[in-house]
Structures are given as C-alpha cells and as structure tokens.
Amino acid sequence: MRIAVIGGGVIGLTTAYSLVRQGHQVELIERRDEVALETSFANGGQLSYRYVSPLADAGVPLQALGWMLRRDDAPLRFRPRVSPHQWRWCLRFLLACRRSVNRRNAAHLLRLALHSQQILCTWREQDRLDGFDWRANGKLVIYRDRASLRKASPGVDDTAGQRLLDAGQCVDVEPALAPLAAALQGGIYSPGDEAADCHQFCQQLLQRLCGLPAFRLHAGQAVTALRTERNRVQAIMLDEGELAVDHLVVAAGTASVALLRPLGIDLSIYPLKGYSLTLPLAGEANVPQTNVTDYDNKVVYARLGDQLRVAAMVDIGGWDNDLDPGRIGTLQRLASETFPAAGDYRNARQWAGLRPATPEGTPLLGRSGVDNLWLNVGHGSLGFTLACGSADLLSSLIGGYLPAVSLDGLTLTT
Ligand SMILES: Cc1cc2nc3c(=O)[nH]c(=O)nc-3n(C[C@H](O)[C@H](O)[C@H](O)COP(=O)(O)OP(=O)(O)OC[C@H]3O[C@@H](n4cnc5c(N)ncnc54)[C@H](O)[C@@H]3O)c2cc1C
Questions:
Q1: Which residue has better confidence, 285 or 311?
Q2: In this structure, which topology does domain 56-83+134-193+269-357 adopt according to CATH?
Q3: Residue 381 Cα, ligand 1 centroid: separation in angstroms?
Q4: Is the alpha carbon torsion for 328, 83, 64, 314 positive or negative?
Q5: Does the beta carbon of 387 sit less than 6 angstroms from any atom of ligand 1?
Q6: 270 vs 158: which has the higher pLDDT
Q7: Ligand 1 in reach of 31 Cβ (< 6 A)
Q8: Does 30 sit in the ligand 1 pocket, CB within 6 Å?
Q9: CA 76–ligand 1 middle distance (angstroms)
Q10: pLDDT averaged over every residue in the chain
Q11: Which of 82, 146, 290, 341 has its CB surrounded by the most CB atoms within 10 Å?
Q12: For 73-82, what is each residue's pLDDT tens digit?
C-alpha cells in the first residue's frame, strides 16, 4: 500500500515512522528543504504527559479581557482580524471554556498522552531510538498566586502519580527555585513526565527512515493541490509533478486548513503564535533540572542537554511567525527574574512558531470524510507530547486494526 504523508514536522515524521514500522511504503512530502523547520523546531521541549488541560477553561475569557489592556507582557494577546475563520474559531473557543467541557477534553488528552508515552518508550527501547536529549526528569508547575493554586488543586491526579506541594517542597524537588521560595504558593509535581529536543527527535526519526527501502522523502516539494475522484484522493500535485497515492495523511500543521478547504473539509484550526529562547547553560549551579512551568506567567523551562529552553505566550492574531521584539523582551525579563544564573538571556537564540490549535485543544485524528484521506492535525500546545500516540492510532486505523485507545473526542465531527 502506497501512503503519502504531507508535512515533515513531528506529527508527519512520527506518522511516517509508525506506518513504516507496520510494513507500509511511505512517501513523506515536505515543502522546506529540511524537516522540522516550522513549529517543531524550537518548542518548549516538554513531554507533558500528565499536565494536559486545554487552554480553553473557565475564567480564561475574563482573564483575557484583562490581558487585552496589557501590551507585550500579557500571556495571551488577541488581535481581532477581518476573518470569519478567526471569529468562528473564537466562538467555539468560548464555548469550550465551560468547566465541564474543559474536563471532558482534558480526559481525552490525558488518554492520548499516556498512550504516547508508552509508544515513545517502545521506540526508545525496542528500536534504540536516541540522540534527542531525552530525560525523564518530571514536571513541576509552580504557582505564585494563591487563587490559581486553589483552582488547580482539585485536578491533582494522585493515581497518575501527581502530588500537590507547598513552597518548601517545590524547592526540595527543584533546588534552583530557592531564591524564589518566598514568592511561591506551592506547586503540582508530575514525576513521570519527560523532556526532549523536538527538532533533534525529528532528525533522528528521519535518519532511521532514510535507511529503509520502504521510505522516500520528497524535500523542498510543496503540495499545491489534491486530485480527487468519486470521493477518493487519486493523486497529489507537487512542484516536481503528480504523485499517485493509495492513502493520504495530512499532517501539515497550520497549513492543513488551506490545503483541505478546496475539498470542502473545514478544519477549525487557528495558529496560536508562541515564542522561545534557547541558551547555553552558564554552569550546573542554579539551573533547573526538572521541567518547570511558571503557571501565572505561563512560561515553561526545560533543560535540553547543555542548553535551557524557555517558551511562552499565545498570540491569537494572524498567520505570520515574525519575531516580536516586545514579546521577546518580556520573555527575557521573566526568565532572568526566575532563573537569573542559568545563562545569558540577552544572547539566547530567539524563535517564534505557530501552534496548530483547535478551539477545544484536542487534535483531529482519523477519517476526514474523503475515503482514503486521513487527518493527523491540530495538536496545538501539545504536539510533541501527543505525536507518538497519535501516529500509532492513525497507523492502526489505516492498517485496519483496532486502535489501542479510544478515539472518542479526538476526531473531526462534521
Ligand atoms: C512556543 C511553543 C512552545 C511549544 N511547546 C511545546 C511543548 O513544550 N510540548 C509540546 O508537546 N508541544 C509544544 N508546542 C507545540 C508543538 O510544537 C506543535 O504542536 C507541533 O510542533 C506541531 O507539529 P506539526 O507537525 O503538526 O506542525 P509543523 O511542525 O509546523 O509541521 C508541519 C510541516 O508541514 C509542512 N507543510 C505545510 N504545508 C505543506 C505543503 N503544502 N506541502 C508540503 N509540506 C507542507 C511544513 O513545512 C512543516 O514542516 C509548542 C509550540 C510553540 C509555538
């Protein structure tokens, strides 16, 4: 069976890897000259398997109104556009902010995330996949605001190994927080969570795939159109010509929206722009060893090899991924106030990327309405975390097997 996968980000690459593992012939098409140069390039690096609550939550709309009055230092910034797509997305986002909907979507994400952790573990152990700075170092979400901690506490899942900590216990878990102890109200610790470098992970997957006869990469080739007949994709149009397919997986991140619109498939995915800094560690002292999320500032920190990755912010306002100096300045300030000795934030590598987000925060996996066209899109803030599990579920569906976990709440409803 000849399967084409559009998109060489972490979602497309894990999909290709999983399909090849199941014995299929796979052609991966990537418009850039190399893989993982877009949103999978310099994300937060967190494999946040147990902390998956969607952005849409009770209280967020009200908070967002307050943030609109702030400029560069608001965790979330909204710029209205003359765009029905944006308005429809925002309306669905507001509906998803109800507490009951948030809880339901968080449960769907948790199920997928825990499956993802198992699949990555299998690939690391059975296939000896390595070379991407993977660490099982746990995740600590710190709270500076008492009300935020009180709101989050009922969600602590001790069956998943999570623990509620006071400020002193936070410092015991992460000694680099000691200078901040007086400002902390407490934290939620998930010892089973992990971190890794997403770009390096993608490179490792590609390296493995390129050694196999069942795999072919078409790099520097943009898919410009899909040719369909009788509700089936017959071929995809590339710069180099037409490529016939038996099955097609769309994993093109935010670009999936425009690619599928001509087929009448309306994906409610909007780009949520975020920013990151990457800096060499100044030494071993006062550097976080655990993945830290500063909840009230909405900033995440992960140690990746001998570098620190700092990521944050959500800009809802368009499709460009330009660096905004005001946002970068805020990120540099917040990080240097939190872990001042970790390194030189002014000379950090700066990056911006577009999270391909659904209003509900849950990805769209599986059938698209066109018989042989499959979706693996819309992973938002959790694409690295959810990639291996999503790839495994999708390749089971294409291969005609029963998926290992339920796809309830994770599919396109038309
Ligand atoms: C600031 C920030 C921090 C983040 N932190 C985390 C984190 O800590 N943990 C986590 O799990 N997730 C995190 N994420 C989210 C994660 O990075 C994304 O969910 C994930 O990278 C999305 O992967 P993707 O493969 O869907 O998209 P992409 O990586 O964007 O890949 C899509 C690919 O498709 C290609 N493409 C598009 N159109 C075409 C076409 N027509 N023809 C051929 N190729 C095409 C593109 O060139 C691109 O390479 C973060 C995101 C941001 C922005």
A1: 311
A2: D-Amino Acid Oxidase; Chain A, domain 2 (3.30.9)
A3: 9
A4: negative
A5: no
A6: 270
A7: yes
A8: yes
A9: 19
A10: 96
A11: 290
A12: 899 999 989 9
